[in-house]
């Protein structure tokens, strides 16, 4: 089915970004996967060419286009060349972290940080998860105790995307230890603050070039001017922004299904067994037909979610539906595509193996799929 969410400007943007990906990502991606991290130059070049801070107003150095269709293009084009990690880092920065600054930062904070974020000089992260709590966000034990004009921050975070490269981190911390949700605030911690340390860059099964890491805060003195929004409102802010993060997973899930299908279809036409292409066996044809159908259906749903988000109408439960269903589809599709590749599907030199490894996390992060079903269920009054 023809996609209806894109205009001529989107197509031009896709062409420009595809060119950028071919030039600045493809030649380096294998090395980044080995290093477990992308280069800082990638960020600077992305900033220079206008691919960061698309939704940031021009007054703060951004492109001033509040349209998630552009974010979808960035995700789709990076996954198309199996650079899922690079896409995930940029996606987190553009679509997840920057919107917190746009929505909750005051004028002084916007002027202080947004231009550097748009230039790729300030890489961002958001640190919610801790070793002892992930899904139960209100149970975070990182504390930020007010002392005069500062907060004294103590705690540990883990699994933080862009953890090593990040210069500016939104840290979810308790400012009122007696409260659960209402005791949570968002503090902006900056590279170089005394007591802010990086832990391990974590070894993962997939997303190899993503510098997912541990962060430590030991008596970090965070000026009160680095509080994002109001004290005690952090949980509410997170709930407002998380729909975007979940739709992002849906977008990348469908893009991964499409890419997996494309390379598998090609493989099925070329590879022969028993004297004929493996695609001509009824089982292969049916599997490909099923995957094509489900991916197409997912695409329509996700595109509609993008439209709803742009119109300010995307609900938390619809974003949760998109996230859980498409990420489960992605896992099924890449698994079947590996199967159709036979032994070659298990070899890392074949992109389908990489897509398989990158897929597994999709039902875990941005809120597990079980939590997504909780959100949907609760919205049904049960
Ligand atoms: C590669 C990667 C990148 C990440 N990036 C970030 C990041 O940038 N920032 C950040 O803050 N976090 C990040 N995370 C963390 C991620 O969001 C958490 O791992 C996730 O929310 C789950 O939390 P947990 O690991 O503590 O699992 P737990 O919460 O311990 O859950 C374990 C299991 O119990 C289930 N469960 C828990 N509660 C319920 C319930 N109420 N009902 C039913 N089942 C339940 C879960 O669904 C899951 O299956 C990242 C994780 C990974 C793997």
Name the average pLDDT: 97
Order of adjacent strands in the largest pleated sheet: 1-4-5-8
- Outline the low-pLDDT stretches: none
Quickly count the helices. 11
Distinct small molecules bound, one entry per kind: flavin-adenine dinucleotide
Structural class: alpha+beta
Percent of residues in helical segments? 40-55%
- For the secondary structure, the number of strands is 10
Report the sheet-strand fraction: 5-15%
Structure in words:
The chain has 382 residues and is an alpha+beta fold. The chain is built from eleven helices and ten strands. A four-stranded mixed beta sheet has the order 1-4-5-8, with helices on one face. Strand 2 and strand 3 (150-160) form a beta hairpin. Helix 7 runs antiparallel to helix 10 (351-359). The radius of gyration is 21 Å and the shape is globular. The two termini are 36 Å apart. The model has no long low-confidence stretch (mean pLDDT 97). Flavin-adenine dinucleotide (FAD) is lined by residues 125-129, 134-135, 159-161, 204, 207, 212, 361, 364-365, 367-368, 370-371, 374.
């Amino acid at each position: 089915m023809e996609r209806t969410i894109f205009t001529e400007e989107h197509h031009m943007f896709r062409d420009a970004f595809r060119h950028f990906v071919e030039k600045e990502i493809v030649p380096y991606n294998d090395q980044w996967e080995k290093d477990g991290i992308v280069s800082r130059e990638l960020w600077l070049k992305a900033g220079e060419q206008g691919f960061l801070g698309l939704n940031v107003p021009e007054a703060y150095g951004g492109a001033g286009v509040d349209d998630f269709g552009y974010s979808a293009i960035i995700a789709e084009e990076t996954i198309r060349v199996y650079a899922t990690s690079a896409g995930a880092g940029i996606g987190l920065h553009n679509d997840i972290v920057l919107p917190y600054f746009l929505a909750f930062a005051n004028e002084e904070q916007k002027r202080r940080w947004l231009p550097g974020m748009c230039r790729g000089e300030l890489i961002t992260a958001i640190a919610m998860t801790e070793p002892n709590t992930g899904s139960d966000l209100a149970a975070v034990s990182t504390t930020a105790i007010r002392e005069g004009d500062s907060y004294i921050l103590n705690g540990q975070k883990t699994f933080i995307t862009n953890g090593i490269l990040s210069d500016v981190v939104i840290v979810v911390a308790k400012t009122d230890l007696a409260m659960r949700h209402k005791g949570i605030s968002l503090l902006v911690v900056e590279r170089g603050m005394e007591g802010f340390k990086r832990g391990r860059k974590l070894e993962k099964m997939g997303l190899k070039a993503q510098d997912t890491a541990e962060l430590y805060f030991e008596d970090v003195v965070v000026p009160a001017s680095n509080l994002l929004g109001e004290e005690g409102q952090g949980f509410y802010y997170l709930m407002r922004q998380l729909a975007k993060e979940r739709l992002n997973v849906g977008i990348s899930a469908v893009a991964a299904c499409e890419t997996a299908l494309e390379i598998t279809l090609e493989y099925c036409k070329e590879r022969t067994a028993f004297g004929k292409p493996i695609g001509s066996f009824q089982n292969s044809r049916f599997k490909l037909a099923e995957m094509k159908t489900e991916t197409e259906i997912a695409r329509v749903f996700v595109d509609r979610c993008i439209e709803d988000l742009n119109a300010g109408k995307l609900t938390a439960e619809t974003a949760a539906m998109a996230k859980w269903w498409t990420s489960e589809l992605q896992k099924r599709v890449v698994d079947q595509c590996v199967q159709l590749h036979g032994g070659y599907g298990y070899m890392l030199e074949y992109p389908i193996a990489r897509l398989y490894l990158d897929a597994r996390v999709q039902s875990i992060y941005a809120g597990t799929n079980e939590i997504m079903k909780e959100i949907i269920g609760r919205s049904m009054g049960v």
